[in-house]
Amino acid sequence: MSYFFLKLLKNKFQFFLIFFSIGIFITFYTYSQKPIIYSAKGIFKYIEPEGMNKVTKVDGNGTITYESFIPGNSGLHIPSLIIDRKSLKLSLNTGNGIYTIISESQNQDIPIKEINNFLDNLFYINSNFLKEKLLETNINEEILKIQNLIENPKKTFPIITRANKVEVVDNRYLILLAGFVLSFFSALTITVLKSRVDEL
After folding, report:
1. Contact 48, 72 (CB under 8 A)
2. 101 backbone dihedrals φ, ψ, rounded to 5°
3. Alpha-carbon span 187 to 27, nearest angstrom
C-alpha cells in the first residue's frame, strides 16, 4: 500500500503539492487570525451565614478516606455573580471548599483588573445580602450572628488570594498540527481521486 502511494506521489507530485500548499496556506491564515489569550486567576473561600456542609467518609480503621465541603442554601449563590460576565469562569474545589475565579481576555491588562474588582465587590455584595437577611429575621441570636458577619467580613471570606500575574494561553500550535495533518491527507485523497478519474 505504501508503495502505491509513493508511486502515486511521484507521478502526481505537482498536483499533490498544489492542494497541500493550499491547505498549509489556510492553516497559517487561521493561525494568524486566532488571537493570543491572557489569563489571570484568583481564589476565595466563602462560608455561608450558617456555615458549610462538610461531608466526611471514614473507613473501618477510622481513617478519613473522603472529605468535601459543599455550599448550603442559606448564603449567596456564588455562580450567579458571574452569569453576565462571559470572560469569567468559576469553579468550586469541593475538596477544600475554595472557589477559583479565572478571567481570560485578548487584552493582557484586563484579567488581573477584572479578577481583583470581582474579589473587591464580594465584600460589598455580601454586606448587602446580609443586611437583607437581617431584615427578614426577628430572632435575637440570628440578628447578633448576622451583625457580627457584617462587621467582620473576613469571617465570611477567610481566604482571598488576589490575581497578581498574567499567564499566556497560546494553544495555536494545535492549529498547525491539525492543519498539517489535514492538509496532507486531504491532498493525498484528492490526488488518489484524480488518479482514479484519469484511469477511467
Report:
1. yes
2. -115, 125
3. 14
Question: Is the same domain home to 81 and 147?
Answer: yes
Same domain, 79 and 117: yes
Look-up of cell digits 475565579:
101
Number of domains the chain is built from: 2
**Residues 29 and 61 placed together within one structural domain of the fold:** no
- Reported as a single tens digit per residue, the pLDDT across 95-143 is 888 999 999 998 999 999 999 999 999 999 999 999 998 888 888 888 8
| Cα–Cα distance, 6 to 111 (Å, whole number) | 51
Same domain for 71 and 165? yes
Looking at residue 78, its amino acid is I
Among the residues of the chain, which ranges form H helices? 2-11, 13-33, 110-135, 140-151, 173-199
Residue 112 in grid coordinates: 488581573
Domain that holds residue 25: 2-34+172-199
d(CA 70, CA 68): 6
Strands 53-58 and 37-45: unpaired
The string of pLDDT tens digits covering residues 148-193 is: 999 998 999 999 999 999 998 777 777 788 888 888 788 777 777 7
Is 104 within 8 Å of 87 (Cβ atoms)? Answer: yes
